[in-house]
Amino acid sequence: MAKEALIYRPVRRMGLSMRSAVSAFLLAATLAGCQLAPSAAPARVDPVAALPSLPSTVSPTENVIGAREHARVIAQYGGTYSDPDVERETVGIVKRLVAASDEPGRSYRVTVLNSPVANAFALPGGYLYVTRGLLALANDRSELAAVLSHEIAHVIAKHALERAQRVETSELVERVATDVLSDSQAGQSARLKSRRTLAQFSQEQEVEADRIGIRIAGRAGFDPFAASRFLDKLERYAAFRSATGQKDDAANFLSSHPAALERRAIALQAARQFGAPGIGEQGRIPYLRAIDGIIYGDDPSEGFVRGREFLHPRLAIAFKVPPRYRLENTREAVLAAAGHDTAMRFDGVRLKEDQSPEAYLASGWINGLQEGTIETAEVSGMPAATASAVAGDWNFRIGAIRLGSSAYRFIFAERGGAGDIDAALAQTMASFRRLSPAEVARLRPLRIDLMITGENDTVASIASRMKGVERKAELFRLLNGLGPNEAPGAGRMVKIVTD
Fold this sequence. Notes:
This protein folds into 3 domains: 43-279, no CATH class; 300-442, Mog1/PsbP, alpha/beta/alpha sandwich (Protein Transport Mog1p, Chain A); 447-498. Helices cover 39% and strands 19% of the residues. It has helices at 18-29, 60-76, 84-100, 132-137, 141-156, 159-179, 184-219, 226-241, 260-271, 284-291, 357-361, 421-431, 437-442, 459-463, 472-479; strands spanning 49-50, 109-113, 120-123, 127-131, 304-306, 309-312, 317-320, 326-329, 334-337, 342-350, 375-379, 382-391, 394-403, 406-415, 433-434, 447-452, 493-498. The strands form 4 sheets. A 7-stranded antiparallel beta sheet has the order 8-9-10-14-13-12-11, with helices on both faces.
């Protein structure tokens, strides 16, 4: 069973992500995949918090599924994030929610994932997950309670088991359509119908989990209107993180979640059962104090994105992309996009002993390599080489730089002459450099820091203090739940990003 069949996310997908923008040319090129870091990172310990409770009502099947998938989730999301204050705050909220649920005897295992994306989900058997990215985005206890109660609702309603059965059926339909039906149109129709059925089933689950979750949070004494408030924030954050600055307008019938406006209306309707806005605990100050100092953005062990520059302290390397490109660091590679039809991938591979960069480019891993395009080069005293390739309607410029026993690869792609990837490759490779020990020592991860606003503080003046991020004023408003024209006011505790 695929892992995606068992993961339930409380938010819409984060817009048109950098990975979506880059995936097309990666598929077209069919280049060999590899890790950014040539050596594997050390394994992380999973410091989860187990909630004591009455004897569990969970079934053996749920336990088996949850335990089987737990390690895969940890690996997929960059390991776990350990912070005693964060763990204590998260577990405390879950305890209140469980006590207010229809099954207070269930046991839950809470894991904070070391991922910068804003996400949370649940597995059968009471496995609850929340990313540090979502914790940094939430602004009070009630917002986090809204997310966690939604996930608890999935567990109580046994959505994971139901969805697993639907996924098995969907996979069977697609396999039959692919292997048996000779009519490609008929096969496509069968697959689409199966996917639509699966998506609709998931949307029904999400609506049910919204209603159950808000009821649980309200019973636990939290602000029941926090769910609709946080949904609004997630929509804004999705647009902010989008690689193109645009929202993802993909057809909702293939989405695993209902449209945001639909979910918000349902959330408001459920919250009004408790009364008018202004009821329930928000818990803003204690929550902010708990997440003070939490890492924001990239995991230090995977390198840093600072504007247009990528720096990796463990590998002691850095490079900068051209102005139109926007970087995103992932565990597999560093990605960048300049619109829908121009993209870049950067990663690292081991080289054979004495293998030159030009020999590596000619070794057969590039499909569509154009004959006679491999050229030798030199970057800051390091041997390098470049080449061109064509696959479908995509054009590629590929560069490799040898440093020690590793080759660092830049793969630029454009479709329909969308961008000058010749110049982009040359400029990016020329910026590649080794970091000095002093530079490595100065590199620190970004963190959430708290401050109290003064009488003369404005969004612009406070945002100017933030480091390592772009569109500072917009991000400051998002992190602190401020509207487009809302001022922070004096004496307010706010979050900023700094090192």
